Amino acid sequence: MTGPLLKRLWIYQAERFPLAKTVPLLAVFSAASLNVSALLAGRELPGALAYGVAAVLALGLFFQMRVCDEVKDLEDDTRYRPERPIPRGLVSLGTIVWLGVAVAAAMLTLAALWSGGTLLLLLVVWGWLGLMTLEFGVPSWLKARPMLYLLSHMAIMPLIDLLLTGIEWTVAGPPSGWLWLFLALSFVNGCVLEIGRKVWAPESERDGVETYSALWGPRRAVQVWLGTVVLAFGLLVLLGTVMGHAGAFALVGALGLLAVGGSAAGFLRTSTPRWQGRVDAMAGVWVLICYATAGFLPLVLEG
């Protein structure tokens, strides 16, 4: 496809990495991580520069995850999803990979300037991302075990949160001993997002696209998804207990859980594309509720 590269890259981001939606979500995600790290340790919130560093690193990492997906899935995309930007020739895979490399160079510089600990944590995240891209060297074996595939890939979520919280604790002091609760919540919520986006209506299933609804059936898939949300709710309440706001965390979480349950019930009644979209959307809303509650509700309550 011809045309100015910048124009084609703009179309690419709109389809594969929509900045208008991604930037605000990652800003909340990264800011909440910094806040939780400081609040759990009983420290003052970091300065504005820390939030900027966290937001940039988070945006860079999620873009690089997209780049790695493009590399890993190129063969399947070319065969089964030719409408996507790279298979249809909008941009080349090489262009996107080199853009990812340029972003990595900027991230490396930023992390090193912030703290040596942040740089080390970034390298750990990149190491796991590289293993994920290579399917840990056993792609066929791993894909034959969907739950292990899910868990191994979602492990990157707590690693990213460890990096983001580390922007605070590598400078201000040691992390709280309770930080593991927040990292566990990140791991489970990664599963909420991943399963939620792959619960499809029967009429939406496509050859070559692996979904949990095709693997387990629509009813079982949405039940598993709801179970991960309930587990995340439990972790959120535990985190609220440690932070001294168990009741408030439970109340907000319960309201979110009711909304999630409504979407799950609707999909169980009629597994249509409309309810498929609601499950996917509600997965994102639930994760946003968790981060907003953990990272900002204590600040509101303690005023």
Helix content bin:
over 70%
- Which stretches of 5+ consecutive residues score pLDDT under 50? none
Distance between the termini: 54 Å
Tell me how many strands there are. Answer: 0
Q: What is the count of helical runs?
A: 14
Largest sheet: none
Backbone shape: globular
Radius of gyration: 20 Å
> What's the pLDDT, averaged over the residues?
96
Strand content: under 5%
> Structural class given helices, strands, pairing?
mainly alpha
Question: Can you give a write-up of this model?
Answer:
The termini are far apart. The chain has helices at 5-16, 19-41, 48-72, 74-80, 93-114, 116-133, 139-143, 146-154, 156-172, 179-196, 212-216, 218-242, 246-269, 273-302. The protein contains 14 helices and no strands. Helix content is 79%, strand content 0%. The protein is mainly α and 303 residues long.
What keyword list fits this structure?
mainly alpha; 79% helix
List the helices and strands and how they pair.
Layout (H helix, E strand, L loop, with lengths): L4 H12 L2 H23 L6 H25 L1 H7 L12 H22 L1 H18 L5 H5 L2 H9 L1 H17 L6 H18 L15 H5 L1 H25 L3 H24 L3 H30 L1
Helix pairs in contact: 2-3, 2-9, 2-14, 3-5, 3-6, 3-9, 5-6, 6-9, 9-10, 10-12, 10-14, 12-13, 12-14, 13-14
